[in-house]
Design brief:
With 151 residues, the protein is mostly helical. It has a two-stranded antiparallel ribbon. Strand 1 and strand 2 form a beta hairpin. The longest helix is centred in the C-terminal third of the chain and has 46 residues.
Amino acid sequence: MNTPTSDSPSSPTSDPKPAPIAVPNARQLLQELQAKFPVFRDCLPLAIGIDKQLLSRMSGLDRKPLRIALGIHTHSLRYLKAVARATTRVDLDGHPAGEITAIHRAHASDLLKERLQRQAEQRRQQRASEALARQHAEKLGQLVEKFGRHK
């Protein structure tokens, strides 16, 4: 006589919270957000507190992957460029949701400059490394030619 009781795990009323949306990682969640909301797809400057709007619209959404997805999105080059030149933030529906302060625009510009400088330095180091590898290969080829066995 095992009948479910109201506090039984199999009872539908035992867990009033909706189950978290099954999103394996933040990148997949970001892709879902981009598919569902044009403001993400178009990289428009997001309203402050957009995470609360998303949590209210997408019931069962887990906060941790959402925060990571928002971080990925808001630190992308495309988003930083949009914030650096825009003056208005938008909500999930694309409606104006406040001004972008000069401080926020300057911060986005600074992050953008730092990122581009870091990428340029990485490219320079990569080219230098490739040149050194070519020189090493040439020198090795010369040594093989000079001291290799000739029949």
